[in-house]
Amino acid sequence: MSGTAVAPEQEQQEQKANPQPEDSCEEKFHKVLAAFLNRGFKINNDVYLEMIVSHLSGKHDEDYRKFIKSAEVFRWLETMLQQWESDRPPASDIGAFTLQLLALIVENEWDFARIQSGSQMLDRFQECIVRNDGKLQNASIKLGHVLVLKAISRHAMGMSWIKQSGSWRICLDYYNGYQTIYITRETSLFIDEVLERFCAMGDYEEVQAIVRTILSPLIDCVWKSPEQDDAVLVNDDRSQKIITPLLSLMQTLFRRIIERGKRTRVAYYILYTYKFERNLWKFTDTMHDHTYLAKIWQTHIFANCARLCTMEIPPDDPMAAVDLTFDRYTINFLNYVNFSIRRGNVQNVMLMAETHHALWRILGDRAPEEVVLKNQSIRFGDQILLLQLFPVLYEMHTLVGNQLPDYVEKFCTKLYDIACEFTIRLIYACRDIFQAYNLNVTELACKSIQGIVTTHKLPRARAVIAFQAFVYVLKEFLPDMCCPSVDGQKERANGTDGKTSLILSKPNLLSAIINGLITLIEGYNITWKECIESTAVVNFMLNLLTNPNLPPRLVVLALKLTQISIEHFLAPNLALLMDNIAGTGLEYVGRIIYKRLHDLSWEARDSALELLASVVIISEIKFPAFQKHILECDIVAVVESAAKNDTEAYVRASALRCLTLMVKIR
């Protein structure tokens, strides 16, 4: 017994004395590859495969990239290919890993030649994928196939193979087959890159062949009735299913062409040789579905924008093609808007405006500030903003009534001065649609606000106009008194009950307005000098927060806007102008914070503490009068209690932060 017990100890001591050399990283990698050849090998989590591919790509260490050039890897690929060609192909995750590894290898032109020499490995892999038995037709395999094609498209030999094998046709089949978003994205990028590289190589025949194949559903008029020669199918589901991928691909191609900022023969072939817009108009005439029409209008705008300055027109052009002028682009856009309004759909106008803003931003310096229409210089961006703002203004008019206040009259006059006659006609047409069809304008106004505030790099003057409009709508959610006291009878006497019903009936509009103001203040740093309405935002929010029926979500937003407004709109030299806050709207800040610190919603309590922290910081930096105000409202004791006893950890943390900021002040 004792002898047998000693043997393992001696063995361990010998191993410690003579340790075996550990496998190198490359040897471990080869062992992993060998394990993948075992048909019974199963992987529980694909993340490990992604990590291996990430390391082999050289992202983290360039030394790992040399592993894929070893002879063992090429032999492994040959063995794996034999499994692919057998009746029992590997599991889909192993198959996808094989293709991703192959993509890393064939990025290099010499390694591509090495792969293809003799065994024609790429052709055989592709043949296995496109077989009709369905064993290698899952999404991960298709994505790996596209990644391989993208990799080889980076060199001349790869482009020659893509042309000879017609691999781009397989990718188009993937795109038209409603695959996953990853396959769709990578396929569209591959098609774009292949078109550009064939153009760079001067192989315009292949470019035309690809473009003709992409546009074939439009050119061949798939919406025509098979039973009658001259009849068309209206709102045909089959036609929509065929055309939808085409529209998405064209939007991607046009966007990439515009972003590159270089003239290309691809745009010329799409727009002139195969008359994309004319054929799309034919299809548009068969559509009455408003949702689908939105995608068609967006594609029209993309095509118009591409016609402005991206076409490389051949010297021997038989069609006498010319760039689209900016005034013609403006007229076309207004015609799309008019067409949509006449069909009773104003929501598509908002989508078209957002599409225009996005493309105009991409054009950058190539887009002019002003466009001349009928001898009148107009700022086209202003007209787009007016169309976007109209649902908001219509909602404001509904809330205000027929007796418009002077400030609303002046604002409307300002908008009228920057509008052109075409825009005014369209706005009146929108009004007629709202009244005739009894549309839900509130929902449309919310979407309009969202579209405006998500517009990147909106010119400052337009941001100020939007800010003013939002403030005027916000005013209609408030009682007539500037900042009511906590006395409930006084609130009711001033019409708070009526405003409460408005808040409860249109909470989404109020939420969109507050969110829009927050975004504009943070994004454009609007000051009172350029927008006097900004001085009223704090009072408006304090007024709103006194409403006991305000939903918790709106309480949080109102507190955040109050905080941002105080931070942005208080003058740096305020302490020199006043030493107390009596008689101003700010005298209600403490009471509101105190009230909301007792709110049932922990999000509201946390937001109140964030507002308090901001006030404390301001009191130390530029407005000491806030310190006395906080002490008079007995807020410190409530904050201390929240730091100790609040049930929510986030609230306790915010309370501790407030106490820390307070302690610093002497």
Automatic annotation (TrEMBL):
Instruction: Output one GO BP term.
Output: cell population proliferation
Q: Where is this region: Disordered?
A: 1-24
Q: Where in the cell is it found?
A: Cytoplasm
One Gene Ontology term, aspect cellular component: cytoplasm
Q: Does the keyword Cytoplasm apply?
A: yes
Q: What is its main location?
A: cytoplasm
Superkingdom of origin: Eukaryota
Please name the InterPro entries in this protein's record.
ARM-type_fold, BRAT1
Recite the UniProt keywords alphabetically: Cytoplasm
Presence of keyword Cytoplasm: yes
Name of the protein in question: Uncharacterized protein
What is the organism of origin for this protein? Anopheles triannulatus
